[in-house]
Design brief:
With 244 residues, this protein is α/β, with parallel strands linked by helices. It has seven helices and eight strands; from the N terminus they run H-E-H-E-H-E-H-E-H-E-E-H-H-E-E. Helix 2 (35-47) links the parallel strand 1 and strand 2. Zinc ion binds at residues 164-165, 167-168, 234, 237, 239-240.
Length: 244
């Protein structure tokens, strides 16, 4: 039988045994089990995160399969969190995967913000992102935010009290409607952004995660350019100016 040393041997060479122990003690909540969330959850389960909350209210659709890597044709119609949990446990049975099939409102976001060490915003709509941002700021927990649209995507890390929160950056979208019908998205562009999000999550767990804090990484996959937008806190932000 394969030992844990076998399982993690390749990443132990990168993060060391103490790093692996930190990963194993960590709890992460991934909100949204779409293209971004499935990939982030896959990498975190593979890496050996101790407990992984996966949150989504939706079921698997055939049009999800080009980018949502945890699902197969047999999962179409199943709750995403159930199919995701099954697949994640198959990848790494040492991870405690907790599926939550719920629409995210503030009480659930706040409960998971208390329980988790890192929160991952893999939502596909601004209303849910702003709910999670509020919970993260109130709990003082780091939030990894990523989003994809068409050929483009962006990522940033919110460290409450230190960096701008999502409201400082995207408050104007707080009431933006979800895209009507199907949103345009290319699978591998989701992969680029999700990989950055998973990497930043692991770095936060390892205590080296401030690289994208206060920076917005903007990816244009058509030109394959990675640009950085400097971002600043809004002293009048209704979410984070009062909390810190
Ligand atoms: Zn703010």
């Amino acid at each position: 039988m394969a030992t844990l040393m076998d399982r993690y041997s390749r990443q132990l060479m990168v993060i060391g045994e103490e790093g692996q122990r930190k990963v194993g003690r960590a709890t992460v909540a991934v909100f949204g089990m779409g293209g971004l969330g499935t990939l982030v959850a896959y990498y975190l389960a593979g890496a050996g995160v101790g407990r992984l909350y996966v949150v989504d209210f939706d079921t698997v659709n055939i049009s999800d399969l080009h980018r949502q890597v945890l699902y197969a044709v047999r999962d179409v119609g199943k709750p995403k969190v159930e199919a995701a949990a099954e697949r994640l446990r198959a990848v790494n049975p040492h991870v405690d995967v907790v599926p939550i099939m719920e629409n995210v409102e503030l009480p659930l976001a706040a409960e998971l913000a208390d329980k988790a060490d890192v929160l991952v915003d893999a939502f596909d709509n601004w209303a849910s992102r702003h709910i999670l941002n509020k919970a993260a700021v109130r709990a003082g927990k780091p939030l990894i935010h990523g989003a994809v649209d068409n050929w483009y995507g962006h990522v940033t890390v919110v460290l409450p009290g230190k960096t701008p929160c999502l409201h400082d950056l995207f408050g104007r979208f707080a009431r933006a409607p979800m895209c009507v019908g199907q949103c345009p998205v290319l699978g591998p562009v989701v992969g680029i952004i999700a990989s950055v999000m998973a990497t930043e999550t692991l770095k936060l767990i390892l205590g080296m995660g401030d690289a994208l804090a206060g920076r917005l990484l903007v990816v244009d996959a058509k030109r394959m350019s990675f640009d950085e937008v400097k971002i600043a806190r809004d002293p009048s932000c209704p979410v984070c100016s009062r909390a810190t």
